[in-house]
Write a structure and sequence with these properties.
Layout (H helix, E strand, L loop, with lengths): L1 H8 L6 H11 L14 E4 L2 E2 L18 H4 L3 E4 L6 H6 L1 H4 L2 E8 L5 E8 L5 E3 L5 H4 L11 H18 L9 H5 L7 E4 L6 E4 L4
Antiparallel strand pairs: 1-3, 2-4, 4-5, 5-6, 7-8
GO molecular function: gamma-glutamyl-peptidase activity
Protein name: Gamma-glutamyl hydrolase a-like
Keywords: Hydrolase
């Protein structure tokens, strides 16, 4: 987490390989060890613990945000999660984040579904918004309704909006072209990730 705080506070723009290496270390830090076994995969609804219209991540949706409470549109694919009470009692998490929504396991156990920070442009979801429009395996039970696809794409749009707040510039058009993802090999698959880009080296 300190890595992300440093990058944010000092407006650091690093070479791609250095950033990827640091993010690899960060992956899994927010929920270390989780809080026991949770649903492997399935679509769920949200229960907001804060009015979504007063959050950073959901407020663009206005009243439509509440549709996430009415339909099972958030696709979860994970083995571990964080109990809301444990989340609030964890000093390292609660000093930076607060949770804005929860979901429930079939056995009734709640887990944190979305978080954000009041101090930093840090946001997170336990669910996978990208799956609704990208993964069509029948056995994964993803909601592919038009409503689900359009509401879930909000998170991608909000992510891009946040990146545009960064004043750093990657470089000229020509300098940017050598690092765009289209330069890497693409594997199209009917397996878990649908499409996979292969980074041969960092």
């Amino acid at each position: 987490m300190q890595i992300l705080l440093n990058i944010n506070e000092n407006h650091i723009l690093e070479p791609q390989n250095e950033t990827l290496a640091k993010l690899a270390k960060v992956n899994g830090v927010l929920f270390p060890g989780g809080d026991g076994d949770y649903l492997e995969y399935g679509s769920m609804s949200l229960e907001f613990v804060q009015d979504p219209r007063h959050t950073k991540m959901f407020n663009w949706l206005g009243e439509e945000a509440f549709l996430f409470e009415n339909y099972n549109m958030t696709y979860n694919a994970h083995h571990q999660g964080m109990n809301p009470e444990k989340f609030k009692s964890d000093k390292g998490l609660s000093e930076i984040f607060h949770h804005t929504a929860i979901s429930y396991m079939p056995d009734g156990r709640p887990f944190v579904a979305s978080v954000e920070s009041d101090k930093y442009p840090f946001f997170g979801t336990q669910f996978h918004p990208e799956k609704a429009a990208r993964v069509y395996r029948e056995d994964l039970y993803i909601d592919h309704s038009w409503l689900s696809i359009n509401l879930n794409k909000h998170f991608a749009e909000y992510f891009v909006y946040q990146t545009r707040q960064n004043p750093n510039n990657y470089g000229t058009y020509s300098e940017t072209q050598r690092d765009i993802i289209q330069n890497y090999d693409l594997i199209v698959s009917d397996q878990w990730f649908d499409t996979v880009y292969v980074f041969k080296q960092f």
